[in-house]
């Protein structure tokens, strides 16, 4: 009796792991498609990128808004978790900051169109914006403090200030194919360097 009970528990745990992995795969695929094609990209493109049927996407995310919100939260979490990991793995805090800002730019590109999707639900948008600030501003502050502490960048910079600047540089990226937000953000980050 115990053996079959453990087998059932193990099977259920394995199914939950598979469901979490499938959801993660869907979110990663949707984020990648949103970066290249925007939040209005066809669901079939996301399904193809994830290697699943469209029914699988709708089972996890019944509406486009559900999917977009889930991708938004997923990317906020990934961006927040990347900061400390980059500080550990990069040669310098400044290098970690640069790589983190690249991830943040990807996130901002994906986020474009979110406001239009959530317009009828201002409370939902406000909740997501608060989540964004709570998770990402401390990470950006940590990266800036580490780089300033090593004398790589000017001191006294605040995460929210830098994130707003990066966000403002990304605004025009969707309306003009000649506009290279990533290049301008790179110049901004280069301008943080401490004069030698």
UniProtKB/TrEMBL annotation:
GO terms for molecular function: DNA-binding transcription factor activity; transcription cis-regulatory region binding. Pfam families: TetR_C_43, TetR_N. Residues 20-79 form the HTH tetR-type domain. Residues 42-61 bind DNA. The keyword Aminoacyl-tRNA synthetase does not apply. This is TetR family transcriptional regulator. The keyword Ribosomal protein does not apply. InterPro entries: Homeodomain-like_sf, HTH-type_TetR-like_transc_reg, HTH_TetR, Tet_transcr_reg_TetR-rel_C_sf, TetR_SbtR-like_C. Keywords: DNA-binding, Transcription, Transcription regulation.
